[in-house]
Structure formats: C-alpha cells, structure tokens
Amino acid sequence: MNRTATSEAFSGVAVSAETVFLRDEPLARRTTLGVGGPARYYTEPASTADLRNLLREAARHGIAVFLLGRGSNVIVPDSGFDGLVVRLRHRSWREVAVENGDRLRAGAGVRLRELCGEACRSGLGGLEFLEGIPGTVGGALRMNAGAMGGWFFDLVEWVRVMTLTGEEKVCSRDELHFGYRVCRELLDEVALEAGLRAPRREERTAIRRRLAEFQEKRTESQPKESSAGCIFKNPEGDFAGRLIDELGLKGRRVGDAEVSGVHGNFIVNRGAARADDVLELIRQLRAEVARRKDIELEPEVLLLGAEWREVL
Asked: Per-residue pLDDT tens for 133-165?
C-alpha cells in the first residue's frame, strides 16, 4: 500500500504492492466537475483478490463503498465522503479483446473511447455512439450510458460482478434490471468486466467516418469547460436542456458554478466553484422549471454519499 490507514479498518488487509491505498484523499481532482472534499479512504486495487479483500474489510467495519470511474456524472460534496472510494484504474482492469468475430470482452476500467478504438480497428460497427462519453465500461454499465440514440445495454450480453462481501458471479443480460440511466443490480455490486456484442461487422473507413461525425456533434453541442455532464434526466417527451434554455436560464451563476451557454443541461465550473454552489444552482433550476412549467426535473448526476431528496 502507498500509505497505511491509521485506524483499525484496513490496517491489516493483505494486498499486493501495486494496489494504491490512501487516506483523506482529495476527490475534486479526480472528477470532471472538479469540486468536492476528500474520501476517508481511497483505493485502486491491482487485482480481483485485492478488491475482494478490501471490500470484505469495508463490509466488516460497516464502511460505505463507492465505485468511481473517470469521475464524470458525479458531484462530490464539499464535506467529502466518509467511506471507501474504489477506482478500477490499474492496467489489469483495462484489458479489451475481440472474441468470436463480433464479441468484445472489456474490463470495467476500459475507457469508452478505448473501447470504440478497438472496435474500429477490428471492423466492428455500432459502438460509435459511445465516442466522447467521458466514462469507463464500469460506469457505462451502472448508468446504462447513452448518446446519439444508443444505449450501452443494447450491446451487453453478460456482466461479471462482485458483491460488496466479495462473492463473484456472472449475470446474463436477461438477469439484469436496467433502464434510463440505471442498472439496479450495480447500485450495490461492482462490475468487473462485460461481454459485448457488436451490432455488425463493417469497413473501418465507415466506422471512422461516423466517429468523426459524432465527435463533431458533441463539440458543437456540449461545453468544453469542466462539467459533470448532463445534470437532469430528460422528462418524458421533452428535454431538460430545452426547458432550461426556453426559460432563459442559461448563464445563471452561483459563485463559479454556471449554467452553460452552450447546453442548458450542463453546469460548468468557471474555475473555483464549490459543490455547494453547484447544488444551489441545481435547486434554483428545479424550482424555476417547476414553477413556470409544472415539471419536476430529476437529477441524473450522482451525489456521492447522499440522497438527492436530502439536499433538494
């Protein structure tokens, strides 16, 4: 371990030398929004065995666990997180391979851009909608990531998971309950790897052309500043960003947190935003849309260590 926890928890856990373990680790720099306080414990396990030992120790001490991917789609409170943050960042979690012609086996730590790249090199089409989503396979599974009309679970055949008490199992797609921005089983289990099936085989030039088209659309429609991605789920039959734009709320600001002028469903960090600034801005947007449109917007972004109903 890079540093041994001084409390009883984790002080005697057996892990390999490549596993990172830190105490009171700042999380703002590990998220795309760039706000929030520290995690009481932070780890990057180097193997399945190390992950199992750490999870079992957390369970033994009643310590909450949160899986962090690339840190998009999450807001860390200024007070931080009084638990264990796990990030599957070691190279052992970032392997991706093509199997049986049109299948891919991808570790939970594989970046979606890396997955798209491997699919393109192998002539596997239909994954291009993932280009530009700043996440990992694990995060895409948990949130059923989607863009450009596609959803991650459109590709999934099976997922290997670990429970928070260290047991492993493989779940077929039919055994999992997923929907808009959620896979229920992965709210309290850890995705280790997934088996994916590409929709079609295709010439690499055609795949590269679509990747470039999607990248251009994202560049034109999404802000370049630090953000957590879309803040709200789209209400049925409408778009949260459209509602916010129509009400003239783009540019509204609390501290250094600002509603993007490019896309109304993004809150950007102008440099020194605090989590409390972001949360206050979210409250204001919800209140305005509810008052003027009679629509209750539901947050899509995760709030680490708390329930949205506690802060809204």
From this structure: 889 999 999 999 988 889 999 999 999 999 999
Query: Quick one: pLDDT band at residue 1, thresholds 50, 70, 90?
Result: very low
- State the CATH number of the domain containing residue 159: 3.30.465.10
- Is 181 known to be catalytic? yes
Among candidate residues 173, 205, 237, the one where a domain is terminated: 205
pTM of the model: 0.93
Beta bridge partners of 150: 147
Query: Choosing from 89, 131, 230, 286, which is the catalytic residue?
Result: 230
Report the number of distinct structural domains present in the chain: 3
188 shares a domain with 126: yes
Record the tokens describing residue 52, joined without a space: 């199992």
- Give, to the nearest 10 degrees, the angle between helix 204-221 and helix 112-121: 150
pLDDT band for position 221 (cuts 50, 70, 90):
confident
Instruction: Provide the domain limits for residue 70.
Output: 20-86
Residues 199 and 234 in one domain: no
Do 77 and 104 lie in one domain? The reply is: no
Instruction: Name the active-site residue from 181, 210, 274, 286.
Output: 181
Close Cβ partners of 55 (under 8 Å, ≥ 6 residues apart):
65, 86, 162, 163, 164, 165, 166, 190
